[in-house]
Design a protein that fits this description.
About 75% of the residues lie in helices and about 0% in strands. It has helices spanning about 10, 30-65, 70, 75-85, 85-95, 105-135, 145-170, 185-210, 215-250, 255-290, 295-330.
Length: about 350
């Protein structure tokens, strides 16, 4: 971490000199205590307001947006849980790859819940901004596909990755137990898991809520559940990248801003590329090889996600190796062996 800049008086003065409000500051007076409390209370209030707003959006989604069906129809909740299993497995593997101290359950669960809650922010922003961006990107509707690409790269990717990173930044990042760069990838993965869980649930409910009869619901829901199970791990991958760079920024404060932006850019571009390519590539594979659309989609996801999982794991592996080397270098060295000398 970069060394904190020091005023010339701080640097050169005698250690015993009192520099209060000359070149240093600490809480001394009643006014100092007041502004200290006001500042940190304001920070907590702002974070609380953000969380309350996210809870309110979720409540509206439950009441009017179909999510209430998860409680009324256990089948929908079961399908949503099944769809999140692959993302959960991937997030668990990233947790396992953390060679440093194990992350506490409170931070993991809290980050998961914030990722779930903040998905509502992305839903609103995507909805509000999609129309204007599609229109501009498609040159007034003349090239719809370009409008779709603009939507994915300028809105969906950046917005969704930003809200997932906010879920990490608002809670786990501030905790002293977030004490290694690789922790960012772990908490990013948890935020992605939370986001994927609620997104999968919305897709499943919207696709099956108008179907009557249990068998029909199972038949209709199984298809969308399989699709969402394949799509869910992507959220874990994208936000693990962004989270890793957030962790790097925590321990490199001098360049924290550019580092965070780099992570967000990487995550958003991978995310937008997936959204852009999944439809055309799946259709092309289905036509060329004469296979079912779902089979073609599986092939696309396995290759696309596989590439970026390998890139992510390579980055985590490099951290693990550096950590192990650093640990070995800290071990006390034994006394040098003195060869026996014959008398």
């Amino acid at each position: 971490m970069a060394e904190r800049p020091r005023d010339p008086v701080q640097r050169d003065a005698d250690q015993s000199a009192d520099l209060y409000e000359i070149a240093d500051w600490e809480v001394r007076s009643p006014l100092d205590r007041l502004v200290y409390v006001m500042y940190y209370a304001g920070q907590w209030a702002l974070r609380g307001l953000v969380i309350l707003l996210a809870v309110a959006i979720l409540a509206v989604q439950v009441a009017f947006g179909g999510l209430g069906a998860l409680g009324a129809q256990p089948l929908f909740a079961a399908l949503a849980a099944l769809s999140a299993l692959p993302a959960l497995v991937l997030a668990g593997y990233i947790y396992y790859a953390d060679v440093t101290t194990a992350e506490p359950l409170t931070l993991l669960v809290g980050t998961f819940m914030l990722g779930l809650l903040f998905a509502g922010f992305a839903a609103i922003l995507n909805t509000v901004l999609s129309g204007p961006i599609r229109t501009v990107g498609s040159v007034g509707g003349m090239v719809p596909f370009l409008g779709q690409i603009a939507l994915f790269f300028l809105i969906v990717g950046p917005v969704e990755e930003s809200v997932k990173l906010l879920a990490v930044r608002l809670y786990a990042f501030r905790d002293d137990r977030f004490d290694a760069v690789i922790d960012g990838a772990v908490y990013g993965a948890m935020a992605g898991l939370g986001f994927a869980t609620i997104e999968n649930a919305l897709y499943i409910v919207q696709s099956t809520e108008m179907v009557s009869g249990t068998l029909q619901a199972i038949n209709e829901g199984s298809g969308i559940t399989a699709v969402r199970a394949l799509a869910g791990p992507g959220h874990v991958i994208y936000s693990a990248f962004a989270g890793y760079y957030l962790g790097l920024a925590k321990f490199n404060s001098k360049n924290a801003g550019p580092i965070v932006l780099k992570g967000l850019l990487i995550a958003a571009v991978i995310h937008a590329s997936y959204n852009t390519l999944s439809g055309p590539v799946t259709g092309t594979l289905s036509t060329v090889y004469g296979v079912d659309q779902f089979v073609a989609f599986i092939g696309f996801v396995v290759v696309f996600d596989g590439v970026f999982i390998l890139v992510l794991l390579r980055k985590l592996h490099a951290y693990r190796q550096a950590y192990k080397r650093a640990q070995r270098s800290d071990e006390p060295q034994g006394e040098p062996r003195v060869p026996d000398v014959e008398s």
